[in-house]
Amino acid sequence: MNKDQVAGRVDKLKGKVKQAVGKMTGSGKLRSEGTVDEAVGTVQSSYGDAKSKAKEAARTGAKKA
Q: What is the mean pLDDT of the chain?
């Protein structure tokens, strides 16, 4: 797992927590921040996944050559 995957998953979790707290307290601002954090985490995690797959493909391709 690379740093983008970890950071993305942490941001997703942080966003979900903010959304839950915002919902419990009635804070629309906190819910919105949570939604944004979760989206940012999803994007960063996906980037990390793609980066990891590309690295693995390059490694596998190098072995076949």
A: 95
